[in-house]
Amino acid sequence: MKKALSLTTLIVALTLALAGCGSNGADSSSGGSVSHNQQDVTFATDMIPHHLQAVQMAEMAQTQASLPAVRTLAEEIKAAQGPEIETMSGWLKGWGEDVPDESMGGMDGMDSGSSDSMPGMMSDQAMSDLGAATGDTFDQMWLESMIAHHEGAVQMSDTEIADGKDPDAVALAKSIKAAQTTEIATMKKLLAP
């Protein structure tokens, strides 16, 4: 017991020493607790359910879209956002914060109060309507909804870029902004007659 306790004490001491060395935020794996702020926590906590909803929407498109370009874009969105969810979940765990439940990305209560911090989130009713649509109607609804969803993610990313402290979180926000801005342009072209 005493040996296990001293090993734990040694690990904690080493972690604190490494965190002190890495306090410039360059190494967030060892200095994570030092290199982040509340905005980083808010960004990850809000972006996880935001991404989860986009993944749900992408899964719908894979079976309900009529345009091959919509299905392809949906696959790309799912492929990009799945790993980003894992990354942000890892940060929150490392920071000792709660990780949003995967069901939060769905249709549970996102259409009220929380939508201020998560712009672009679809309401329960809108998700239900999208789920019931098919063919050209689905494509139109999906593209319009995903454009709004992406615009919300870009807005959330801008806040993180401006106010975040963790270099990895800020870098992810920049990556999300760049990718989703490009996807918005693609979706607007698909909507154009």
UniProtKB/TrEMBL annotation:
The keyword Signal applies. Residues 40-191 form the DUF305 domain. Residues 1-19 form the signal peptide. Keywords: Signal. The keyword Cell division does not apply. Pfam families: DUF305. InterPro entries: DUF305_CopM-like, Ferritin-like. This is DUF305 domain-containing protein. It comes from Nocardioides zhouii.
